[in-house]
Each structure stands twice: as C-alpha cells, then as structure tokens.
UniProtKB/TrEMBL annotation:
Keywords: Signal. Residues 1-28 form the signal peptide. The keyword Signal applies. CDD domains: LysM. This is LysM domain-containing protein.
Amino acid sequence: MKHSYMKSMVVACLATLSFIGFNATATAATNYKVVKGDSLWKLGKRYSVTIDDIKN
C-alpha cells in the first residue's frame, strides 16, 4: 500500500510540474553592439527571438 501511495504522489507531482513548466519563460540578458546594416528582423532571426523581445 505504501508503494502505491508513493507512486500516486510522484505522478501527481510530475503532472503539476509539467503544467507549471510549460507556462514558465526563461529570460537571458545578452548584450549586443549594433552595427551598420543591423535590423530588428535580422537580429531576431540570428538569436531566435521576437522583435517584441528585443524591444523589451
């Protein structure tokens, strides 16, 4: 019985964490020196971020 209870608790915890984890966003600060010819679109493509992310 104790094994079954523990297994149920682990499954419940993993389910809860998976729902929470999908809503979390990672933030990372990266410094970049703008050079002639740069555009928000090019920087977004290079670093896989949106233009709104760059503006913020």
